[in-house]
Design brief:
By secondary structure, the chain is an alpha/beta fold. The chain has two domains: 141 residues, 3-Layer(aba) Sandwich (Rossmann fold), CATH 3.40.50.2020; 139 residues, Rossmann fold (3-Layer(aba) Sandwich), CATH 3.40.50. It has a seven-stranded mixed beta sheet with strand order 10-9-8-11-12-13-14, sandwiched between helices. Strand 11, helix 6 and strand 12 form a beta-alpha-beta unit. The longest helix is centred in the N-terminal third of the chain and has 16 residues. The radius of gyration is 20 Å and the shape is globular. GO terms for molecular function: ATP binding; kinase activity; magnesium ion binding; ribose phosphate diphosphokinase activity. It comes from Psychroflexus salarius. One of its GO terms (cellular component) is cytoplasm.
């Protein structure tokens, strides 16, 4: 016999309130009310203002810096668990700390694994996220993970541009699989950038594998942080004779002087989702909303229906 649930409820962590409101609108239900008590020392306590007993609860919150965003998600999950919610889904459009998915040198943490364990301990019974930095992070969880791909919303936009002589590019070797997947659907060539770093976020050398002369290039990546790699790659490609360079990056972390770099670069356009709210406006940045994608997947999850149609990659 199928399980019986009260109507699904959607709540937002403060950092993702705008996106959560859009998701709730697309889902067709009001966003649940949360009140946060803030103490003078910086401690805070979120509180659900609606009963969640026996409900399927979706808590929407990306865990980009600062660490307060992760802490808020953990507290919300714990509150839902202690309020007798039947199922608790952490909807994390951007899964932070994902770059620390392995030990790449001695005596360092595997932060992505730690975050996964904390989410489960706090009460998450399911995770819905998008474009993880590394696919294997799904294996860090003992609970179901629905790993969505922003390609389902980016590809229709790219096709609408009707670009001739299109070439898909990866800004580094690690993103080659993603670039090849995009090229398959766009029926285009692929080029790869090979880079070496002097230290984190600092590129010492970059080389281009492939020909971009006379091509309209689309760089594809899961996130853009300082925008150093992306703008360096765009400038290099224009120097090598590309007609135009635009970039598709799912998560606009955009830290430091990233906005300034983008404005001064050869990039014609940077296309991102609203998984992380932009810190400032930019004429070069185009935001494509992921709200409808998440709403449809959340509805399918609530009604125990397949979501395989949402996986283009």
């Amino acid at each position: 016999m199928a399980e019986s649930f009260k109507m699904a409820q959607i709540f937002a962590c403060s950092q993702s309130e705008t996106l959560a409101k859009s998701i709730a609108d697309a889902y067709g239900i009001p966003l649940g009310k949360v009140i946060t008590l803030n103490f003078s020392d910086g401690e805070f306590q979120p509180s659900f203002e609606d009963s969640v007993r026996g409900s399927r609860v979706f808590i929407v919150g990306s865990t980009h810096p600062s660490s307060k965003n992760l802490m808020e998600m953990l507290l919300m999950l714990d509150a839902a668990k202690r309020s007798s919610a039947r199922h608790i889904t952490a909807v994390m459009p951007y899964f932070g700390w994902a770059r620390q998915d392995r030990k790449d040198k001695p005596r360092v943490p595997i932060a992505a694994k730690l975050v996964a364990k904390m989410l489960e301990t706090a009460g998450a019974t399911r995770i819905i996220t998008m474009d993880l930095h590394a696919d294997q992070i799904q294996g860090f969880f003992e609970k179901p993970v629905d790993h969505l791909y922003a390609s389902t919303i980016f590809l229709p936009y790219l096709r609408s541009l009707n670009l001739e002589d299109l070439t898909v590019a990866s800004p580094d070797m690690g993103g080659s699989k993603r670039a090849y997947a995009y090229s398959k659907f766009l029926e285009s060539d692929v080029v790869i950038c090979y880079k070496q770093r002097a230290k984190a976020n600092v590129i010492s050398h970059m080389a281009l594998i492939g020909d971009v002369k006379g091509k309209n290039v689309v760089l594809v990546d899961d996130m853009v942080d300082t925008a150093g790699t992306l703008t360096h790659a765009a400038n290099l490609m224009m120097e090598r004779g590309a007609k135009s360079v635009r970039a598709v990056c799912t998560h606009p972390v955009l830290s430091g002087n990233a906005y300034e770099k983008i404005e001064k670069s050869a990039l014609e356009e940077l296309i991102v989702t609203d998984s992380i709210p932009l810190k400032q406006e930019s004429k070069k940045i185009k935001v494509v909303s992921c709200a409808k994608l998440f709403a449809e997947v959340m509805q399918a999850v609530h009604n125990n229906k397949s979501i395989s149609s949402k996986f283009l990659m």
